Each structure stands twice: as structure tokens, then as C-alpha cells.
Amino acid sequence: MLRFVGRVAIVTGAGNGLGKEYALAFGQRGASVVVNDLGGSTSGDGGPSSRPADEVVKIIKSHGGKAVADYNSVEDAKAIIQTAIDNFGRVDILVNNAGILRDKSFLNMTEQDWDLVHRIHLRSAYLLTHAAWPYMRKQNYGKVIFTTSTSGLYGNFGQANYSSAKMGLVGLSNTLSLEGAKYNITCNAIAPTAFSRLTQDLLPPDAEENLKPAFVMPLVLYLCHESCDATGSLFEVAGGWMGKVRLEKSSGAMVRRPNTPMTVEDVQANWNDIISFATPLYHLTQTDQVSHILDSIRKINNKDEEKGNEVFTQTYSYTSNQAILYALAVGCSLRQPNSLRFLYENHEQFSVLPTFAVIPCQSLSMSVMSSGKLGFDIDLLRILHGEQYVELFQPLPTSGTVTLKGKIVDVLDKGSGASIVYDVEMFDENEKLIALNQFVIFSVGSGGFGGKKTSEHQRPSLPAPKRKPDQICRETTTIDQAALYRLTGDSNPLHIDPSFATAAGFSRPILHGLCSFGYATRHVLHTYANDDSRLFKAIKVRFTKPVEPGQTIETHMWREGNRIFFEAKVPESNQTVLTGGYVDLHDVVLNTTTPGTAEENSKSSTSSGEGLKAKVAFDEINKRAKSQPDLVKKVGAVIVFDITKDGKVQQSWTIDGKKGAIYEGKPAEGTTAQVTITVADDDFVDLALGKANAPALFAKGKLKVKGNVMLAQKLSALFKDQAKL
């Protein structure tokens, strides 16, 4: 017979039902018992009354046992534990059994109904166990029972308060079983079904006979006996049947793919595997669960590569329309001087804002962040853009396909989070480096892993000079600014959805940090470079506070040589939103063709037209023009054709309507081109053959005209039916 001689047991709610059964059994088997019962009703009202506890104590003593009554509410936990210490000098066993019901449908439940049930079931179990814990640790022995419920395990209509509190007890038991193991303290949870005051209105008529508390008691006593080493377990028990409950999950599916952003459609495609229990998984501890996930992640990554060594590669294609959309998104307007060069693809100086370089590179961010190469899991809802660096090695193409190569260069432990530093290089179609982006992303809650605090690879931000700014540029954003900027590719609902913004702690949707970044860069370029993006070399900035759409961005600038320091403020909130910023400018304009030497670029622009189809066409046109001299003179203007291939000018031809001549190359010395037409080799041939229409090519952006557009119309004399090749 299992005995409890020398042990002290505290049973709460021991005046009736299950608690009474436990107390009597402990007393019968030699334990000293603290019989706790407030003497209230099942709803927590009424009482207190000493009668229930006194009657149980009287029975235990009548059989030669040791017991003392305690009439405290379980919310007076320290007093209950002190009763055991004052009367028996120790506490070995704590059975958290007391409880009440306040059953109502969720809609009709009041905060008082919710709070009272949680206080009695969950909070009081915490208070009691917390008060007993030091004694159990000191004596290196303890047995704790938490009473959960099948209502918590499976749910039950009208018991949202009760079921949630009961599941909280399961988590408490699981955690304390880990913390108590070192001190020989076991913690287990039981989910009993028995006839009692709490359940008599819920169970069928024959329950009183078949679901007696006496059929639950043996499990509780065994779990509390020194011979039982079970801990961290959950048991269901009813009518003499008892069984252990464990967490089971489906084998699941790894939805992520290497170097590819994960999408909702990926979840949809793998749904059947996600919910399949064909080969269920069981985990005894959280460590098991984390290990399983990490093992799955490692399978989709290269096991031979160390953290940070993998290069993520993808291509990104864009048109001039996307570059123009970006310019509009960061505040470019026709009201501003020189803005047409960023908004009109046929402008003679059409160019791309330098900070557009972040758009292709940001598309690689998700692949980097979800790579599994960081050494910890990242919650994408808890990441912040900390800093940004952009350096251009040649002006950005106005359209084309670029190759992106990204690499994690460092992961820094900042205590409250982790800073991930990663570089993305951008290459043109000839594999020449166009730009370098460095992103610094802060992952909230991912710190504390013992990593280094600083990185020699991180481009530093720099403080502004301690003097009044040399220049200040102010510009008010529109209420639709974030809605417009998100069309460039960053569709985070934080910037458009009020409910999402509220959940994230903002009063309303905020502007993208990179949009504010684009505004500040424009202000610097306008103030110190006359809006010439070719003078841009590099920019660094730190994001400190958000901007709300409709607020003003005020950029303070200080010039020291070719470095422009800047900060951005919002006057409406009196907050500094961008700090540590600087823009480096070139002394002279960058070459706008290839990023080679001036000599190489000169050779490129004067190379022979051999290999171009246009040469054949111009030779034929010239041949016919010589037999009809007046045909060229009808043009009446000097027009230059720049013929391109793969986006670069390969050769030029001049049609000199004043002299009646057509020749290869730029206009002769002393002659000025009145119109320059830039067109691809194939498109020019189609134009000469009559297969293409010049206005149509112009509308599609395939034919660009610099100079007097009206004079270009006189070329029709060379391309009308009788002049076709």
C-alpha cells in the first residue's frame, strides 16, 4: 500500500467533490492534510462558511489522521501555505483543485465573468504554487497538481472564460516541470470528468453513479507519491478510465523554397500536406519542436556553406514607366524645375533618380531574410528597416534587365534584437557593376544570442556638423503618397490599411521609410547638383521615426567638400525622421554610356557601322538620293540618326538637307544638328522598309527625338512610297 507518512499535502477546494475525495484519501494514507475551502457557491458568490472544511477535517481525524482546516480564499495564497508551515512545518504536495463557474455565451459574457474565473483558476494556481515553491526547492522535494479541463482541451460552448483559464494551467504545468526538475519538483496536469457541484447540471442522469470523484482520486494520489517520477504530463481521467494526452501535429510541409519569396499561393499548393496526419509528429519539449523546424530548414539550404557565404541571385526587369512611377512616388512634380527629365521618357536628358536602385534590390530582400542562414528565426512582422546605403558606379539604365547578387555580410546582437547587414550588388546586361545597396534590418526580439555588437562591413552613418544648416528644403507630401509609393513594389499593408497600422501601434498608416529617403535625396540633388543624377555617387541614412502621408519633409543640409550631410525632420510632429545621412557627389559628370574610360567611350561612339542593318539601309537611301538630289534638299534641315543596339549607340548618320548630303557620322564641322533621332537598328530598318510607322514608334518610346520635333516630319520625303527600299 502506497503511504504518505511524513508528507504534508495541501488540497484547495477540499470541502466537496474531487477535493474532498483527495483530502480524505491523503489523510487515510498517512499524510498531514491542509483542507482548504472558502465555503462559497459554485459561482464564487456566498460564504464564507467554515462548515465544508471542518466536516472533512473531522472525518480525517475520526480515522486517526492529521488534518487542519483553512478557510482562506485561494487568492490569499500565502496565508494557505503559511497554514501548512505553522501546523506541520513543511509543504510537500499541492493540489490546485479549487474552481468556480460563470458560464455564459461569449456575446453575453462580462469582463467581471471573465476576470473572476481567471483569477480563481489560473492566477490563484500561480499564487499558490509560487508561495509553495521556495519551501519545495529548499527541501529538494515537491509534487504539484494542476486541474485543467476537457473544456480547455476541446472547447465547450458558453465557457470561453473557463476553458481559456484551464488551458493556461497546462502551459504553467509544462513550464514549471522544466524549472522544477533540478530540485526534484514534479508538476502534472489532470483533466478530470466527475460528478460534482460544478458539473451536476452539465452531466446526464447516470453520471452520479458512473462518474464518481472516487474514480479520479487514485491517479492524483499516484502522481503525488514519491515513487512516481512523471512530470510535465497531462492526463484525462473519468469513470475509472485514464490516459496520457500528448501534443500531436501533422508531418506538415516545408512551404519555403530556396532563394524564393514565400507566397500565400505556396501555402495553398501545399495545404493537403500541411493538414495531413498520415505520419504524425510528437514533441515532448519545445527544444524538440525547434530542432525539427531547423532540421527542415537546413534541408532546403546548402549544408556545406557557412552562414553568410551564400550568394542569392535573381534578375529584375523594368521599363522607363517604372522609373517614372518611382519618381512620382518620391514627390517629383511638373511644378518643380528640371523634373521633366525624370518624368518624360523622350526628354533629351531623361534619366533615372539614383535612389531607384533600391527598388530592384529590395525585391531580393525576402529571399535573404527568409534564407535560414541567419542562425535564428525571423518574424517578418517584427522587422524594421534600420539603415540604407546606395552607391552608383555608373548612372542607372533607363530600362532593361539587371542581375542582383545579395549576400548576408553580418548578423549583430543588439540585445533587444538582431541587426542583419546584407549587401546587394546590381549588374547590367554586360555584367558590369552598376550599384551597391547595403540594407541594415533590425529584427525585434531576435537578440541575446551572444553575437558581436559591431561590424567592419557595415557602412557607417555620420553625424551632421554642429552648426546651423547651410540649406533647408521643405516639401509637403500628399495624403496619397504611401498609396502611390507602394506601387513601386513595397505593398506592406502597414502603409495603406488603417486597421493593420493600428495593430502595429500607429494611429494611421505611415509613409515608407524609403519614400522619405527618396524625398531627401531629391532635395540634395536639386540644391547641390542642379538635379543632375550623373553627379550622384553614394548615400547613407538611418531611419529613426515614421512620416505620415500629408506631413512635410524638411531636409537640413550641410556641405563639406563633395559630401553633403543631411537630416530630415517633420515640422508637424517636431521629430527627426532621418539621421546620420550624407550624399557624396562627383566632381564631374559621370560618363553616360558605358562605365569604361573616356577613351573607350569615345571609341564606342565613333565605331564603324559595320554589322548594323542600318548601314545597308543608309547606303541604299544615299544611293537613291544621289540620283535624286532634290529629295534630300526637301528635308531642309540637319537631322542626325543615332542607331542603337542593345540599348547603346553604335553609329550615327547625318542627313544634311541644306547641302543635300547623307553621310556616316556626326555633322561635319561648322554644321549643327537641328534634330537628333535615336532608334534601334531593327526599328530603323522597319521604318525604311515601310513596315513601321514613325509616330507609332515614337508613342511606344522606341523612337526618341531631341530638338525641333516638327522638322523631323520633313523626313517623310525620304520614306514615302517611292523611296522605299
UniProtKB/TrEMBL annotation:
Q: Which molecular function terms from Gene Ontology are attached?
A: 3-hydroxyacyl-CoA dehydratase activity; isomerase activity; oxidoreductase activity
List GO terms (cellular component aspect). Answer: peroxisome
**Which keywords has UniProt assigned to this entry?**
Fatty acid metabolism, Isomerase, Lipid metabolism, Lyase, Oxidoreductase, Peroxisome
Q: What is its main location?
A: other
**Domain of life here?**
Eukaryota
Q: In which pathway does it act?
A: Lipid metabolism; fatty acid beta-oxidation
Gene Ontology biological process terms, A to Z: fatty acid beta-oxidation
User: What protein name does the entry list?
Assistant: Peroxisomal multifunctional enzyme type 2
Species annotation:
Rotaria magnacalcarata
The lineage is:
Eukaryota, Metazoa, Spiralia, Gnathifera, Rotifera
